[in-house]
Specification:
This protein has 1 helix and 25 strands. By secondary structure, it is mainly beta. Strand 12 and strand 13 form a beta hairpin. The longest helix is centred in the first third of the chain and has 15 residues.
Length: 346
Amino acid sequence: MKNVCRIFFVFYIWILGGCSLYGQNSIHFSVQKIWDNGAYNSFTSLVQFKGKFYCSFREGEGHVFDDNGKAEGRIRILFSKNGRSWKSVTLLKEEGIDLRDPKLSITPDGRLMVSCGGSVYQNRELTAQYPFVCFSQNGTHFSKLQKAKLENSTDHRNDWIWRLTWQGDTAYGVNYFQKKDGTRGLWLMTTTDGILYQKRSDLLVPDFPNESTIRFLPNGQMAMMVRRDGADCCGYWGLSVAPFTNWTWKKMEFRLGGQDFLILDNNNVIACSRSYYIPSTCKTVLFKGNALTGKFQEVFVLPSGGDTSYPGLLVVGKKLWVSYYSCHETKRPAIYLAKIPLSLFK
């Protein structure tokens, strides 16, 4: 009976346009498809820079490979003055490299930064992986992509710093890597220029940890949400205080996929992730939680389906903007932007 009720709830908010878990009145939200050029568009990020809005994502012929077995994803960046009309500002590419998961951030000196992973394949086998970065002073012209430099990684086969979060003059990110001997690890990394990265600490999360998002609480604590793809696959929630070498971890109650989260002034958390509740029809779902306890609950199911998720979150006035990708309307995923009242997360 419990499962039937949960399925009915998902169906209810899908049809009526969303309501809270607690039976509040229906909310008013909007969802707009902002890019669909027939390619396989996925893995978004969203930021406001110099008065404009920017959305980045990977553009390719498939989730990884095209019909000929090649993986050569490109990075598309859109901009908008008002959040309604979107135009392409650049398309970044590297010959023979699959560029993935572009994340946007703003450096302390006021540049728009793009960080992404670059994967190299031979006969559909991953042979190498590197972090790439580039920058823009004005949001129109971007520097050439360059490999980031990671200290103490000469014995690594693969490296991927999945997302950066700037705090003061330092950016923090998590490198999930594989050594040449096959062992895997997770490091907290820091950088002040976006190019050279130093290891801060080992992150002792078991069972294939990978994609990780970092945010800061109002008191300066660091919070981290880590995806795991081994054992029960439930995510991990971590808290640490400076210098961020000792961590307290809590296993979450659900699986993560392409997650992002924001922390509000009262330590409430808005999170977004792929939901695997019905594995054959994954959705992109918004959660609210408490940063200190690491407890979360589902709040809203976005119109989505199939290959979906990898949101970007941005607070604009009294609304939460969510970029994400989904193929619930198209054979190949398109890029969507949802605008949802922040009152839903109180």
